[in-house]
């Protein structure tokens, strides 16, 4: 064993490697935040549109079912079906007009 120092001493950690590791860590955190699922609720106009569509489809379908049922019981099927369809459309449009006249906060009713 000699008392001489070796020609190559072990190199300590380089500052550039530390900076690179910090930047990689920050980039991973940003990527994790960017990839997190975001829950987005429907806006007031989307809710109003869905409500109008549901009123229209429900009114027409409900009128058809009620008209067909009344026509089947009283054996006046084509006329009762048409009257039920007409009344279902009227009720659907009445609901749509009533809901569109009120503001989005007052239209919830719950």
Q: Tags for this entry?
A:
single chain; 110 residues; mainly alpha; 3 helices; rod-shaped
Account of the protein in words:
With 110 residues, this protein is mainly alpha-helical. The protein has helices spanning 15-35, 44-74, 77-101. 70% of the residues lie in helices and 0% in strands. The longest helix is centred in the middle third of the chain and has 31 residues, at 44-74. The radius of gyration is 35 Å and the shape is rod-shaped. The termini are far apart.
Structure at a glance:
The chain is mainly alpha-helical. The chain contains 3 helices and no strands. 70% of the residues lie in helices and 0% in strands.
**Helix amount:** over 70%
Distance between the termini: 89 Å
**Which structural class best describes the helix and strand composition?**
mainly alpha
Number of strands: 0
Elements, N to C (H/E): HHH
Mean pLDDT: 84
Set out the fold topology.
Layout: H1 15-35, H2 44-74, H3 77-101
Helix pairs in contact: 2-3
